[in-house]
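Not sure how to ask, but would you mind making up any protein sequence you like and the tokens describing how it folds?
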Amino acid sequence: MPAMVLGHQREVHRRHTQAPVITYEASRREFTATAATSARYDHEVVLPGGGPVEVTRCYIVTYTHHPGRAWTSRVSERDHDVCRPGAEIGGLVRLAQTRISSMYAKDLTHSGVQKALNPTGRRSFEVKSVARKGDTRTVSVVVSSSGTAVDQCYDFTRHAPGGDGRSSTTAVPTASC
């Protein structure tokens, strides 16, 4: 599958699953998204102190596409430990978006972003590149979980500041950095 199509498919799967980690297995033509999802519901309470309940489940969603056929999907529930690295990466991605959004434009360099994302020298972020196109910067970063080594490349795109001086930053998982 061409890289551009792969990137587009990965973004479609990310939107549908909200999964922070998406892998692609070329030999099987499969995208696998690992995501923890939560549902909140109101519980009828008899005793004081009760109230809404939140249930979290870990799901693996696999999308397969063979030429000439429609996409197929499989969903399976897994132990929470399977989703822990992805949940950690999701939190790190949100942190990176916040930090990149709040940086001064002049600091949006390879070393400037690396310092902003990884001030303590931990393994969580490795900036691979910073590209500029007009007022927009795209930062490619490997985001890593602790413990179980799970890595996911992300492109963070910071758009030009709006009228209020704030900059929005989008994050898209990519196949490689």
Helices lie at 3-17, 80-102, 110-117. The CA atoms of residues 30 and 129 lie 28 Å apart. The chain has a mean pLDDT of 81.
